[in-house]
Amino acid sequence: MTAENQNAAPGRALVTGAAGGLGREVAIQLARRGCVVAITDINGEGLAETARQIGAGAATEIMTSDFTLEGAPEAAVGKVVARWGGIDILVNNAGYGVIEPFLDASYKAWTRTLALNVTALAMACKAAGRVMREQRSGRIVNITSPGSRMALPDYTAYTASKAGVDSITRAAAVALAPYGVLVNSLAPGMMDTEMQRSTEADLARANGRNDLQAFLDERTRRIPLGRRAEISEVAEAVVWLCLDSPKYMTAERLNMSGGLDKD
What we know:
Distance between the termini: 28 Å
Number of strands: 7
Number of helices: 8
Largest sheet: 7 strands, parallel
Order of helices and strands: EHEHEHEHEHEHHHE
Shape: globular
Structural class: alpha/beta
Strand order of the largest sheet: 3-2-1-4-5-6-7
Radius of gyration: 18 Å
Strand content: 5-15%
């Protein structure tokens, strides 16, 4: 924490999509920094493992929830406020994506992708933002993607949804700026997560690539830094936005793609 808030009470955080991958690591790192952390996901077993890794000594709230259901994001924020009296940090990490050629895309895939990645995220921002407005403080971090700026015809629903995340981040930041609430986003590149592995395996099949490892190696070589991101180092950047970034920084997109996204 910065010098001015070292003596402040621990942050009250909600991390979505926390059953594994980046969400789990963010929750763990926030707890290490002294935050009390609520974790939510549709995967209850994964959440239990995240709580185990956080440790019994940390205050943790587990909420198994499907954020695509109406009212679910607001209910999760409400539980955080009921337990700890407010909310200081919201990390919108939950996401969904499926590989489908654009001309063969299904209505089901589009609606589920947008429901979780856009609508649920917006409702979580709204619910947390209302509480933070009254507190006149708080930080929201939305996980976006370099893909939001790319033409990816096999992954269009996902990339379109992340463009929506970028738009929501800017709008929420402006709406909440008068109350001292900061809203930023982070666009991580390729990481070794379950979602990334599944997506790339599907992408390889869609492009007729039978040698998955060769396909992965080829994609890795496109990264200027020559390697994929460690989940822990991406989580460090998320935590920095939650706790340490300057109070004058809002409506910003932090790219962490090893040089793939250069804007």
